What we know:
- This protein is an alpha+beta fold.
- It has helices at residues 2-18, 22-33, 38-45, 51-90, 109-123, 137-140, 175-182, 222-237, 290-295, 312-320, 333-336; strands at 127-128, 134-135, 166-167, 186-195, 207-217, 243-247, 253-262, 279-288, 304-311.
- It is 41% helix and 18% strand.
- It has a 7-stranded mixed sheet. The protein has a two-stranded antiparallel ribbon with strand order 2-3.
- The relative contact order is 0.11.
Amino acid sequence: MKEQIEKVKQQFQSEIAQVSSMDALEAMRVAYLGKKGSVTELLKGLKSLSVDEKKEMGRYINELKAHVSEHIAERGAQLKTELEEARLKADKRYDISLPCQETMGTLHPITIVQRELEAIFSSMGFAVEDFSEVVTEYNNFEAVNIPKHHPARDMQDTYYLDNGQVLKTHTSAAQNAILRKYGAPCRAIFPGRCFRNEALDASHETTFFQMEGMMVDENISISNLIYFMETMLSEVFKKEITVRLRPGFFPFVEPGFELDIQCPFCGGKGCATCKHGGWIELCPCGMIHPRVLEMGGVDPERYTGFAFGLGLTRLAMMQFGIHDIRMLNSGNLKALDQFVMM
Ligand code: DAH
């Protein structure tokens, strides 16, 4: 009997090495371990042996059985990998010999700055809102006090769709929807992608990001605006930031301002970032025009508010020392994956 067992084992070993398909492997499993398989037959043969022989041969056969199962499973796993590799090799859509990208992905510089600002404003009680990129002409212009034929539309030429909607030119396009959603009092920021007809150069892109903010309540004044801007910017730059307001015109605020910050990189002495002026123009803002409140369903006799339109793209460029805006939309990972949250 020992010889028989040995014979079955040897036969198994020579056959398993040659098996090249899952079907053949399954056929082998049946041929050895199935009801009429050779290992099963060996076990059946034990019947005719003496008690001592049964013990000894039984052990050998069980060892053989374990050996067979183990090798069938192992060859099965091997075959699966081989077959998958062969399939991929034959599939001309993929070149599996190309080196793969082994590094982790990173956040886009604008996403990094956006998330940081969202965290800062959330901690000050502001809701973070999202708004569509395709908006009605009404929301983009009329609702923020830019009627048809107003010269301010010239500066914000954009893509007009066949259905009369536009790709939003500024995040202010969401002001009306936010006022209608929250009414007064309200505190909200809304970051978003904006689109304009621009001649491309290192600081102008047709696609860029802004972050709009609004706070409406009773007795909101310019002091509140300055306080929130200073607090937010000090958090962003991780140091005390001095701001100044200059008059600026935007149809949806009255009065309107350009908010400058004292250059956080040179402390106001003058450097390349502030173009040696000591101040950086950062964030247009102002007190929300009563007509805008009214169109948003908020009583301008009772409530006032401030609004600002932070250039998210500009801020990210400044924070990370990016000198060409075109890099941000380039999809060039070699350039884009070097930035991390500071
Ligand atoms: N929407 C303006 C733009 O893109 C920026 C702006 C100015 C937003 C003043 C405001 C604001 O909220 O108060 O040019």
